[in-house]
Design a protein that fits this description.
Length: about 675
């Protein structure tokens, strides 16, 4: 059943009555709205709905053509229904004006519907080249590019390197840096549908909002499109609509926004309240006919599993695709026939690969199957070329003495290790606990610095075990785990034995555990349906209290307790705050006083030092990493402690006596890969 508003059906019937002939706007307006005065936009909207419903012809054109300054016409023949559909009594063949064309339309649509079901799988199979016929070609070799995106014609691609935006010709390899005055931060690139301009967000972090701009592919002054955008942008094939993601911290709401490009009018077409989130490292993707938008949502099911949702643009009706094979999905794009998607997905205990996924419930098929990691993807308009970001990351554990932080010693080794990039903790006896993704899932490991002997503490314990925290007496390790299906705080003996779940609320996801020096209280951040909050929970009896207000500070990113247990430090992202600023909040646990320091830098790996008088943090830049120290009262400028060229710091912490610094440090390499003969 194809449901159309009555006026839209009347417009279609008038076009069917005159196949191949131009029907003027005036004729359509007077026939469909004979007794009322309406704006021409009513007709325009009806044509839009017709095109979206009918899709495109086999050669990619619209069934309903616009003839400039004249009107519209049906671009395909209208085949009359057969005599079998007509009454045998010719005296009753005087049909109402609209009834006979309606039957014609029903017959045509019915035939299309039936035949499309029969050929759907054939088309997908026919358009899907075997993996061995897909050609792979590396497009960049510097290892430091981000956000690669291919042009609609498949001849060039854009990417970010450092603080600049580049355009590169695929055939020749020649590139040019676009001159964009006043802009040094670029993220979430996307070409416009006609390929003459590029959208970008003036923020490369996925954990902050930014302004959305549009600039010519030749550079120049960009045009502001929208503010407070958290994702890349999707554009409909006709260029009339844009879609992107926004977050409302006070409401704890993620929303997909549909924006009319010409008028700037916006409306929410999908929203999710925490702990559900809408994934924002990619962009909402319009189907080829503009009728649907595909997005990725993260659900609290099975520990924050990714799901694909198809949203009807007109009604906002959302349909979730069942993809039990994937535990994570990051980015997706439509193939031009509109019956399947290309996705970057990760199966359990595996790294991200590229897949082709039919939207009718069929099984996904691999496009890549190797030891590389594929993240962002972008597909040309004809579906024959795809550009992906090939991503490699390694991280190892290092230590350094307090009086010589530049003199660092490597503790763990391995080509594919991601040691410590999801948390690190240093015990009083010198042993180091860290989270590592070696097999695909994240588990807690321990290592003895002198011998280098490692031991896995969590195994078959869910997809994620992260952010270990060692109790002051060295007997227990607290960490966040998805082994129960949802992210909760767990405690184990220091050797990994006797795992015990400590937090149990069914509606919340819990992160970043820290424990008071006396071992009595557990503090953690909980992703609440309205906004993130910090809880204090008694380890003895499990009673708890909320110690930050909902909608006020939205704690995220890190949680640290001063060595004497009097002050909590955490990062917050407030609505409307500058995206290049980190807000550090200090909460006095005795008085409840909350202080905020704003630092004009994006911090990472933040930890207390000097018995709580200072904070140390890492700054990661393209040329390397720097470790800084700032006073907690903000009374003096931050001072540089160490520089590490050609490296990235993922996390760090001090030993209990603050004589040894443990670091998770390594590299991230990102290059653009071209896949040809995809369809």
């Amino acid at each position: 059943m194809v449901n159309l508003p009555s006026k839209v059906l009347e417009v279609l019937c008038l076009l069917v009555e005159e196949p191949g002939s131009v029907v003027s706007k005036e004729e359509l307006m007077s026939a469909v709205w004979p007794d009322s005065f309406v704006e021409e936009s009513n007709l325009t909207q009806s044509i839009y709905l017709l095109r979206r419903t009918l899709g495109r012809t086999s050669n990619g054109t619209n069934y309903v053509e616009t003839i400039p300054k004249r009107g519209y016409r049906l671009a395909v023949p209208a085949v009359p229904d057969t005599p079998a559909f007509e009454p045998q009594n010719t005296a009753h063949r005087q049909w109402p004006r609209l009834l006979r064309p309606a039957l014609i339309v029903c017959a045509v649509i019915g035939l299309v519907a039936v035949s499309s079901q029969l050929v759907a799988r054939y088309l997908i199979t026919k358009d899907s080249a075997p993996v061995e016929k897909v050609n792979f070609k590396r497009l960049t070799f510097s290892g430091d590019i981000s956000f690669p995106v291919i042009s609609p014609d498949g001849k060039s691609f854009a990417y970010v390197r450092g603080d600049s935006l580049y355009l590169q010709d695929i055939a020749t390899g020649s590139n040019v840096k676009l001159e964009i005055p006043g802009h040094k931060k670029f993220g979430n690139l996307q070409f416009s549908s006609e390929g003459e301009s590029i959208y970008f967000r003036d923020e490369e972090s996925f954990d902050a909002d930014g302004n959305l701009y549009q600039v010519s592919r030749f550079g120049g002054t960009p045009r502001l499109i929208a503010d407070k955008v958290w994702s890349g942008v999707g554009e409909s094939s006709d260029g009339s609509d844009l879609a992107f993601v926004r977050f409302y911290p006070k409401e704890g709401e993620w929303a997909v926004i549909l924006r009319e490009r010409n008028t700037g009018q916006e409306r929410k077409i999908l929203s999710r309240n925490l702990p559900y989130t809408i994934y924002r490292s990619g962009y909402p993707a319009f189907s080829p006919n503009g009728g649907q938008i595909a997005i990725v949502e993260q659900t609290p099911e099975r520990g924050n599993v990714s799901k694909i949702v198809l949203v009807d643009v007109a009604s906002g009706e959302a349909t979730r695709l069942e993809t039990p094979q994937f535990v994570q999905i990051e980015q997706l794009g439509w193939l031009p026939h509109g019956r399947s998607l290309v996705v970057t997905g990760r199966e359990d205990n595996r790294f991200f690969q590229l897949y082709r996924l039919p939207i009718d419930g069929g099984e996904p098929s691999r496009i890549t199957n190797d030891l590389n990691i594929y993240r962002n993807l972008s597909v040309s308009a004809d579906g024959k070329r795809l550009v992906a970001r090939q991503y490699s990351i390694h991280s190892h554990i290092w230590t350094a003495p307090v009086d010589a932080l530049s003199n660092q010693k490597q503790i763990t080794y391995g080509n594919l290790n991601r040691d410590g990039n999801a948390g690190i903790a240093l015990a009083a006896d010198g042993s180091i606990l860290y989270a590592s993704r070696i097999t695909g899932n994240i588990d807690i490991w321990s290592v003895e610095p002198e011998s280098g002997v490692r031991r896995q503490l969590t195994e078959n314990a869910g997809m994620n075990n992260e952010n270990p925290f060692i109790s002051a007496d060295g007997k227990f390790v607290f960490y966040e785990s998805t082994r129960s299906g949802r992210r909760k705080i767990w405690r184990s003996n220091i050797d990994g034995s006797n795992p015990t779940q400590l937090t149990t609320d069914k509606e919340e996801l819990d992160f970043l555990p820290v424990v008071s020096p006396d071992g009595a209280d557990l503090y953690y951040i909980s992703r609440h349906p309205r906004s993130n909050v910090i809880w204090r929970q008694s380890i003895a009896d499990g009673t708890r209290e909320m110690i930050t207000q909902q909608g006020k500070t939205a704690p995220e990113g890190f949680l640290a307790l001063s060595p004497v247990g009097k002050t909590l430090a955490f990062r917050s992202q407030s609505e409307g705050s500058a995206t290049n600023t980190t807000e550090i909040n200090f909460l006095n646990l005795g008085t409840g006083e909350l202080r905020t320091i704003k630092v004009d830098i994006q911090m990472s790996a933040i930890t207390f030092s000097e018995n709580g008088m200072s904070l140390d943090y890492a700054e990661n830049r393209p040329g390397g990493a720097k470790i800084w120290r700032m006073s907690t009262d903000g009374s003096s400028p931050a001072r540089l402690l160490a520089e590490i060229p050609a490296a990235r710091i993922f996390d760090m912490c001090w030993s209990p006596d603050q004589k040894t610094l443990a670091l998770a440090r390594g590299r991230q390499d990102n290059d653009a890969i071209l896949l040809e003969n995809l369809e």
